[in-house]
Specification:
Largest sheet of chain B: none
CATH topology of chain B: MetI-like fold
CATH architecture of chain B: Orthogonal Bundle
Shape of chain B: globular
Distance between the termini of chain A: 73 Å
Number of strands of chain A: 10
Number of domains of chain B: 1
Radius of gyration of chain B: 24 Å
Number of helices of chain B: 13
Helix content of chain B: over 70%
Structural class of chain B: mainly alpha
CATH class of chain B: Mainly Alpha
Order of helices and strands of chain B: HHHHHHHHHHHHH
Number of domains of chain A: 2
CATH superfamily of chain B: MetI-like
Helix content of chain A: 40-55%
Strand content of chain A: 5-15%
Shape of chain A: globular
Structural class of chain A: alpha/beta
Number of strands of chain B: 0
Largest interface: A-B, 57 and 62 residues
Strand content of chain B: under 5%
Oligomer: heterodimer
CATH class of the largest domain in chain A: Alpha Beta
CATH architecture of the largest domain in chain A: 3-Layer(aba) Sandwich
């Protein structure tokens, strides 16, 4: 018999309230809200969050650094909105010392906005000038100009080839990897006839954006491409418009998978890894993931470039290569006299050959430093990619040049993977570029 | 004189089928979530509604470990619990006062609370960030504990006021004649009678507090020692996200909400039933 006089609901709420009040101070003591950095600690915001393939290698550097120096690393994981997170923190007077982030969109404006400081002098003073590849440094200069200030220290380079599933190509009767766009159209038709989707791409995100630009710059020299990406003129530059027409020609010939406009990178990976599509454009960060998929796709894949049309400015199929992946951006707070020496020890630790090798092994980064990292390239695709220079020409990576217009451009290009005409696409890109 | 008996309205087979279809419609996303938590990316994208070929139970431990969900769950519990206590502590007396008054001032105050609905949360983000900075509570859990009740008060007060207005005046007068003051009336008369409303508000606001993301991300931040579970979960997203692990993490964050809801809703039904049988 229940002798309690209050209804159960009253007791339940009362118990909850009492527990909450009692637990509050106790739980509050569990974590510290005091983020004020002590002299023996550094505050770092990193793009390599827990789910990233580079997170483990990063943590090993953090731990080794703390073990050697006794300096604690306060790590905050940056999410998709890492740029907003850092800007909010700076506005609140809680700036980190260092941001490990890629050079894109808003981060391109941080030096001008006074969020970060130039890295030129640190690179010299810390003995990294001879170690970091000049090509990598150039990509981190303001405006990509040789005289521009270096916005951060480049670390994670990438190669971004096309992946061809040679097993599926052979089954469809395609004996060699297409080298021209005509061969690609013919191969796509054979693949479709054999029930395999041709080229998978995320027409709804950054993967579709990059592939579009790779095709659109087929007839244009690098300098003009950079200018158009930066300032617009897609419709008024005949060679660029011709490249856009090539894109729509390939689209209408069925080169891309059906409904490419609605796909994202993840759908693209799944489609290729599972053998439903025979070709995809993907960067070196996906090498380890493809092996981990357990489908054996890494052994059936040959890396190459995107086929070129006749009359193209490129002699060989094209791929991307770059060093704007992830780098170290030093904030004003981090550059303060009392703190910069901690950052010197921290950043140079990352550039040690063993650390770079660890990242090469774990996440397939293209090493930013000179040296032979072949022994770390245990992934078969990574080994293949080290020989790409002989088989491909490199196109201009759009990131730095399109800057903050990136998201608007993706919206236009989703239509391009749908049914937009070349004129609609170029007009949309011009509008998106001007903001 | 014959009486015309109106036929009893029954649902019939069509209504049963439609009910089941509706139930399936609601269950489909939950099923998709549950099976995806045990699959690889390839299976999620290529066979979305099929059962897993290999049941990857490890996805749960990987999600728990990788996103440090234990600490994040603790933070979410702490913030939600303190926020709900503050919400009720403020809303109950306010609702009592408004329920017992029927004059212009009371109506104006009720109107002021209603105006709270007109402010979209996104519009309040920037002023709230500035407020947190000025109070030196940016990147702390304490600000969220104070802010969430403030945002929950309009709805809570209005709902509780309506429930408290159902208290019979004779009962109040009788209690007053026995010498009950305001606090005694609130605790012994109004709260027990408005208990279904109180439980409803508690469930509703707890769900809101638990699921809050925008302000938690912007103001509380992503540091492991303060972040909520909704902010910890996206750390599993990368350039090549393992969606099986991400979905497993999502299931883990949903479980406490589901359990709380299941327990509280039963309590609410009991409270309603108890009220119905008392003479």
């Amino acid at each position: 018999m229940d002798h309690r006089t209050r209804p159960r609901a009253v007791r339940a709420v009362a118990a909850f309230v009492i527990s909450a009040v009692a637990l509050g101070p106790a739980l509050a003591a569990c974590g510290s809200d005091d983020k004020a950095a002590a002299p023996d600690s550094i505050d770092v915001v990193t793009r390599w969050s827990a789910g990233n393939s580079a997170a483990a290698a990063q943590n090993r550097v953090f731990q080794a650094f703390t073990a050697e120096t006794g300096i604690k690393v306060n790590v905050t994981e940056g999410l998709e909105t890492i740029d907003d997170q850092v800007e909010n923190a700076v506005a609140a007077g809680k700036s980190p010392d260092l941001v490990i982030v890629n050079l894109f969109d808003k981060t391109l404006g941080w030096l001008d906005a006074g969020v970060t400081v130039p890295a030129d002098q640190y690179i010299k003073d810390w003995g990294l000038a001879d170690k970091i590849k000049p090509a990598a440094l150039d990509e981190w200069r303001v405006g990509g100009a040789p005289t521009g200030k270096v916005q951060g220290l480049p670390f994670s380079g990438f190669s971004w080839p096309l992946w061809y599933n040679t097993e599926l190509l052979k089954k469809a009767g395609v004996d060699k990897i297409p080298a021209t766009t005509d061969e690609l159209i013919a191969a796509a038709a054979k693949l479709r006839a054999s029930g395999v989707a041709p080229l998978a791409v995320g027409g709804n995100d950054w993967t579709g954006q990059k592939l579009f630009y790779q095709i659109a710059q087929s007839y244009t020299d690098a300098a003009t491409v950079k200018q158009v990406m930066q300032k617009g003129g897609y419709c008024s530059t005949p060679t660029v418009l011709e490249g856009i027409k090539l894109f729509t020609q390939l689209r209408d010939a069925g080169v891309f998978v059906d409904n490419a406009a609605g796909l994202t990178a993840d759908a693209m990976y799944a489609s290729y890894y599972s053998g439903k599509a025979a070709i995809m454009p993907a960067g070196s960060w996906a090498y380890t993931e493809s092996t981990a998929s357990g489908t054996g796709i890494d052994k059936k894949t040959t890396l190459g470039g995107f086929p070129v049309p006749s009359g193209a400015t490129f002699k060989k199929p094209t791929a991307y290569r770059g060093f704007t992946g992830v780098g170290f951006m030093i904030t004003k707070k981090g550059a303060e006299p009392g703190r910069i020496d901690n950052l010197r020890k921290f950043i140079t630790k990352f550039y040690a050959d063993t650390s770079v090798g660890d990242f090469v092994k774990d996440s397939g980064i293209l090493p930013p430093t000179t040296g032979d990292f072949g022994s770390y390239a245990t992934n078969p695709l990574l080994t293949q990619s080290l020989g790409l220079d002989a088989t491909v020409d490199y196109a201009v990576v759009p990131d730095v040049w399109i800057g903050a217009a990136s998201d608007r451009i993706i919206q236009v290009l989703t239509g391009a993977y749908g049914k937009s005409t070349p004129q609609q696409i170029c007009a949309g890109l011009d509008t998106a570029t001007k903001g | 004189m014959t009486t015309i008996r109106r036929p009893r309205r029954t649902g019939g087979p069509a209504a049963t089928v439609l009910s089941w279809l509706y139930a399936l419609l609601l269950a489909a996303p939950l099923y998709y979530l549950a099976v995806s938590a045990l699959k690889t990316n390839i299976e999620i994208f290529t066979r979305p509604f099929a059962l897993p070929t290999h049941w990857l139970w490890d996805n749960f431990s990987t999600a728990w470990r990788t996103a440090d969900l234990g600490g994040a769950l603790l933070n979410s519990v702490l913030i939600s619990a303190v926020a709900i206590v503050l919400t009720l502590a403020l809303a109950l007396p306010a609702a009592y006062a408004l329920a017992r008054q029927d004059n212009r001032l009371a109506r104006a105050i009720t109107g002021a609370f209603s105006a709270g609905f007109l402010i979209p949360p996104f519009a309040a983000l920037i002023p709230t960030v500035i407020l947190a900075i000025k109070l030196d509570l940016f990147y702390t859990r304490e600000f969220q504990m104070l802010f969430l009740p403030a945002s929950a008060l309009p709805l809570s007060v209005l709902l509780l006021t309506q429930f408290m207005r159902t208290v019979p005046p004779a009962l109040v007068e009788s209690a007053a004649l026995d010498g009950a003051g305001h606090w005694r009336l609130l605790i012994s008369v109004f709260i027990p009678i408005a208990m279904p409303g109180l439980v409803s508000v508690t469930i509703l606001q707890l769900l809101t507090f638990w699921n809050e993301y925008l302000f938690s991300l912007t103001i509380t931040g992503t540091a492991p020692d303060v972040r909520t579970v909704q902010v910890a979960l996206p750390t599993l997203i990368s350039d090549a996200t393992n969606f099986g692990v991400l979905t497993a993490g999502t299931v883990l964050t949903l479980l406490p909400v589901y359990v709380t809801y299941a327990i509280s809703s039963r309590r609410m039904q009991e409270a309603l039933t108890a009220g119905a049988v008392k003479g």
